[in-house]
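for the recovery benchmark. C-alpha cells below, seq after
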C-alpha cells in the first residue's frame, strides 16, 4: 500500500520528532584535524590523565573509538577543554599507532589479553634477592613477554644487603641481559638511583615485578618529587601487599626518559605469546632454524639447532636458555 502519492514533495513527508533531543546517528565520523597531541599518564575508572604540552588534563574516551581503549603510554589525539582547569573534561578521539605493546594474560589458559603499557622500549624486571625470595619462573616469563613485545629487558635486583646476587645471575649470564644490583642504603644516598638512571636515559621503561620487591621504592628514588605509597612483606606468607593499584608514567627529573610504574603482579600468563617469536631474541641461534622442520618447537628430536650448536656457531648455554624460556610457557610460575 502506497503511503504517499506519485507526486509527493517534502511537505507531504511525516517526520517523527527526536524525543531524546540529540542528533541523529550517522556513520560519518569527524576527522578532528585540529586535535591536540597528548600522552596518557594514568587510567583510573574510565578517566584518563593526559599530558598535553606542559599541562595535565582529565579526559574520557570518545564514543567513536568503540571498544578500542587507551592505556598508559599511548599517544592520543584530544579535543575539548584542554585548559587542565578543575572539573574540566576533554575527549580522546584517536589512539595513534603503537610502536610496542606489552601484554599479559591472567594465566596460560586465559585467552583474554591485558595490555600493560604501550610504546615502551625497555622492560625493567624488578626482583628482590631475599624477603621475598626470588621467583625465577616469573622472571623467565617477563623475559619472554619482553622479547615477544620487542622490548629490551633489564634486570634490577634489589635488597642485596640481605643476599648476594651471584647465584641468581648465574642462571641469566648466558642470556646477556644487563642488570643492576641495589639495596636500600644505596637508594637512600642516591648511588643506586644514579646507576639505574643511566640505564633509563633516552628510554621509556616499564617496571614490573611482584609485590614487595621494592619496585615502587625504586621508582620513588628515581623520581623523588612524586612519592607513591609503599608496602611491606607479610612475614607469614612471604608475599608483598599491593600498594600500586594503577600504572603511572613519570618523567625522569632531567627529562631524559620516562618510567612507568605498574601494579605488582602475582602471575604473568603467556597465552598470547607465539613461541616462534621468542627466537628473535637470540640472533646467534636464529640462522640455525633454517634447517628446522615446519612448526618446530626448537625442543624436539629433529630440531636443527642441536647441529648448529655442535658445529660451533653458538654457545650451548644459549640454546639451553632458549629452551628454558620456551618451556616457561608450559609451566606454572610456582613449579
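predicted aa per position
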Amino acid at each position: 500500500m502506497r503511503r504517499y502519492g506519485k507526486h509527493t514533495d517534502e511537505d507531504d513527508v511525516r517526520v517523527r520528532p527526536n524525543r531524546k533531543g540529540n542528533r541523529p546517528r550517522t556513520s560519518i565520523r569527524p576527522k578532528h584535524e585540529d586535535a591536540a597531541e597528548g600522552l596518557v599518564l594514568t587510567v583510573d575508572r574510565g578517566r584518563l590523565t593526559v599530558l598535553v604540552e606542559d599541562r595535565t588534563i582529565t579526559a574520557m574516551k570518545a564514543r567513536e573509538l568503540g571498544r578500542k581503549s587507551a592505556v598508559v603510554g599511548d599517544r592520543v589525539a584530544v579535543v575539548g577543554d584542554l585548559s587542565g582547569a578543575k572539573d574540566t573534561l576533554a575527549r580522546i578521539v584517536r589512539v595513534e599507532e603503537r610502536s610496542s605493546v606489552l601484554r599479559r594474560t591472567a594465566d596460560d589458559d586465559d585467552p583474554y589479553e591485558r595490555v600493560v603499557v604501550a610504546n615502551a622500549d625497555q622492560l625493567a624486571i624488578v626482583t628482590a634477592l631475599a624477603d621475598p625470595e626470588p621467583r625465577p619462573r616469573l622472571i623467565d616469563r617477563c623475559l619472554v613477554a619482553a622479547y615477544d613485545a620487542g622490548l629490551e629487558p633489564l634486570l634490577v635486583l634489589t635488597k642485596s644487603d640481605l643476599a648476594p646476587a651471584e647465584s641468581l645471575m648465574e642462571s641469566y649470564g648466558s642470556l646477556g641481559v644487563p642488570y643492576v644490583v641495589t639495596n636500600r642504603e644505596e637508594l637512600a644516598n642516591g648511588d643506586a638511583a644514579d646507576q639505574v638512571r643511566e640505564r633509563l636515559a633516552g628510554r621509556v621503561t616499564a617496571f614490573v615485578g611482584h609485590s614487595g620487591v621494592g619496585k615502587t621504592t625504586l621508582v620513588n628514588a628515581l623520581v623523588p618529587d612524586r612519592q607513591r605509597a609503599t608496602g611491606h612483606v607479610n612475614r607469614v606468607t612471604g608475599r608483598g601487599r599491593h600498594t600500586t593499584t594503577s600504572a603511572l608514567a613519570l618523567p625522569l627529573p632531567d627529562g631524559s626518559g620516562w618510567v612507568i610504574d605498574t601494579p605488582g603482579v602475582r602471575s604473568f600468563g603467556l597465552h598470547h605469546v607465539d613461541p616462534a617469536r621468542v627466537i628473535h631474541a637470540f640472533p646467534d641461534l636464529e640462522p640455525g632454524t633454517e634447517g628446522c622442520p615446519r612448526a618446530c618447537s626448537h625442543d624436539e628430536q629433529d630440531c636443527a639447532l642441536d647441529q648448529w650448536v655442535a658445529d660451533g656457531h653458538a654457545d650451548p648455554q644459549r640454546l639451553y636458555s632458549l629452551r628454558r624460556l620456551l618451556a616457561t610457557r608450559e609451566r606454572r610460575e610456582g613449579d
